Amino acid sequence: MNNKTKKAICILSGGMDSTLASYIAKNDGYEIIAVHFNYGQRTQDRELKAFRDICEDLKILEKYEIDIPFFTQIGASALTDKNIDVPTGGVETGVPITYVPFRNGIFLSITAAIAEKEGATAMYIGVVQEDSSGYPDCTDLFISDMKRAINQGTKEDTHIDIKTPLVHLSKAQIVLEAKKLNVPLEHTWSCYKEEEEACGVCDSCRLRLNGFKIANQIDPIAYKAL
């Protein structure tokens, strides 16, 4: 591989966090290959649009749109099972019902296969530990264990670093960092429930809106009247 072009695979959902992580990867000098997963989530079509818009913004030439149908078969999450309501009360204890079983582990495994094929040396994922909804697959420890397993289970000359530039940031810090890097936040989508206008009351909308409020910034996407 030419030393002048180092490649990174960015897991890009179309949300604010993964979009900022992708901009950081570009800023770090990587040629980006973007990966997006359609896994039967409620806002699948809207997230896919966000992904494509952001790929255009970043001038990403190579991208993968991967379909993972079995998450809807498993269910057990409000994101993939229409029989489970997305909570809007704002108070949940333990692991939230919006947690999709081992989702990031599966995403990282598939992305590792793509990274090995493409000769990439880094994978970027926008996990946030301190200000997240309490998902067990968003922690430093989980990511470091996955990195070790991936490098153990790939060819000897494959060396992949999993980069989590946002893991210890708050949502407000993420908003400010995104502003600094001129990230087009108007193209991102975070809502768990709606695809036209964001609901403003699900966990993801609440975290996002609170981040903008603390950062003293205005969120450029449309929300339903609250």
From TrEMBL:
<comment type="pathway">
    <text>Purine metabolism; 7-cyano-7-deazaguanine biosynthesis.</text>
</comment>
<keyword id="KW-0671">Queuosine biosynthesis</keyword>
<feature type="binding site">
    <location>
        <begin position="12"/>
        <end position="22"/>
    </location>
    <ligand>
        <name>ATP</name>
    </ligand>
</feature>
<keyword id="KW-0547">Nucleotide-binding</keyword>
<dbReference type="Pfam" id="PF06508">
    <property type="entry name" value="QueC"/>
</dbReference>
<dbReference type="GO" id="GO:0008270">
    <property type="term" value="F:zinc ion binding"/>
</dbReference>
<feature type="binding site">
    <location>
        <position position="202"/>
    </location>
    <ligand>
        <name>Zn(2+)</name>
    </ligand>
</feature>
<keyword id="KW-0436">Ligase</keyword>
<dbReference type="InterPro" id="IPR018317">
    <property type="entry name" value="QueC"/>
</dbReference>
<comment type="similarity">
    <text>Belongs to the QueC family.</text>
</comment>
<feature type="binding site">
    <location>
        <position position="205"/>
    </location>
    <ligand>
        <name>Zn(2+)</name>
    </ligand>
</feature>
<feature type="binding site">
    <location>
        <position position="191"/>
    </location>
    <ligand>
        <name>Zn(2+)</name>
    </ligand>
</feature>
<keyword id="KW-0067">ATP-binding</keyword>
<protein>
    <recommendedName>
        <fullName>7-cyano-7-deazaguanine synthase</fullName>
        <ecNumber>6.3.4.20</ecNumber>
    </recommendedName>
</protein>
<comment type="function">
    <text>Catalyzes the ATP-dependent conversion of 7-carboxy-7-deazaguanine (CDG) to 7-cyano-7-deazaguanine (preQ(0)).</text>
</comment>
<keyword id="KW-0862">Zinc</keyword>
<dbReference type="GO" id="GO:0005524">
    <property type="term" value="F:ATP binding"/>
</dbReference>
<dbReference type="GO" id="GO:0008616">
    <property type="term" value="P:tRNA queuosine(34) biosynthetic process"/>
</dbReference>
<dbReference type="InterPro" id="IPR014729">
    <property type="entry name" value="Rossmann-like_a/b/a_fold"/>
</dbReference>
<keyword id="KW-0479">Metal-binding</keyword>
<dbReference type="GO" id="GO:0016879">
    <property type="term" value="F:ligase activity, forming carbon-nitrogen bonds"/>
</dbReference>
<feature type="binding site">
    <location>
        <position position="199"/>
    </location>
    <ligand>
        <name>Zn(2+)</name>
    </ligand>
</feature>
